[in-house]
Amino acid sequence: MRRMMFGVLVALAGFGSSLRADEKPVRIGVTAGPVAQVVQFAAGLAKERGQRVDVVEFTDWVTPNEAVSNGDLDANLFQHGAFLAVQNARRGTTLVQVDPVGLIAPIGLFSKKIRSLDAVPAGASVAIPNEPLNGARGLRLLEKAGLITLAPGKGLSVSRFDIVANPKKLDIVELDPAQLYRSLDDVTLAMVNLTYLLAAGGDPNTALLVDRAADDQFVLRFVARQDRKDDLRLRRFIETFKAPEVKAFIETKLPGFVPAWPGV
């Protein structure tokens, strides 16, 4: 397990006259890339509204939850509900989503070798995440593309062993999610999460197929401990996150991402 490989990005510094000098900063964990960018923007807006926010950036998907669980952070924003449920069950934690506000980070099928799904050749190599949950999302997207057929009724527990029809005899390759975009130099097709695509400088408009479905279980939301979910500092920051300025930032600076909260 990688341990606390993160650098603290203090989004709000100093004691401006509009800030509440007696209020402890709220600490929010994020993963590097687009999610970090939007939270840092919201933190800057919070500063203008008189609140200090420390944005703590991580390089993995394990330590952000550990840091919330042990009290080092007030909350994090990087995961959807399906991933959180798996992590709670696996690690014995009871972290919860705090508010409906969130982001949809779409997934897509990308290629540097072909320009349409009709051009996928027989025996093509196709990369999906090696993490079971998102690997299942990749397989479901391949099925949506008409490239494979999966055994029915498996939901998000489906794996490559549940492929019941593979007419083009695709070679399914499982890779670390962060490596999928780079794998496009070697494979014919890859399922890439836009979080990684944008961080690597990729263009979401080149996707052969994108899944932007607003499936509630795949919305990235703020997560906290049960005893901190109603912390007034955290609630105050989340209200700032819902501001029109944040929505505009997402729509203009994070192409492909979708703001997801009531009233949007």
Describe, in plain words, how this protein is organized in 3D:
This protein is an alpha/beta fold. It is built from seven helices and 14 strands. The strands form three sheets. The protein has a seven-stranded mixed beta sheet, sandwiched between helices. A five-stranded mixed beta sheet has the order 10-7-11-6-12. Strands 8-9 form a two-stranded antiparallel ribbon. Strand 2, helix 1 (34-48) and strand 3 form a beta-alpha-beta unit. Helix 1 packs antiparallel against helix 7 (244-253). The chain is globular. The two termini are 38 Å apart. 41% of the residues are buried. Residues 1-18 have low confidence and may be disordered.
| Largest beta-sheet details | 7 strands, mixed
> Structural class of the secondary elements?
alpha/beta
Low-pLDDT stretches: 1-18
So what's the overall shape? globular
Oligomer: single chain
Number of helical segments with 4 or more residues: 7
Instruction: Please tell me how large the radius of gyration is.
Output: 19 Å
Determine the N-to-C terminus distance.
38 Å
| % residues in beta strands | 25-35%
Mean pLDDT across residues? 90
- Spell the H/E element sequence: EEHEHEHEEEHEEEEHEEHHE
* Helix percent band: 25-40%
Q: How many strands appear in the DSSP assignment? A: 14
Widest sheet: strand ordering: 1-3-2-4-13-5-14
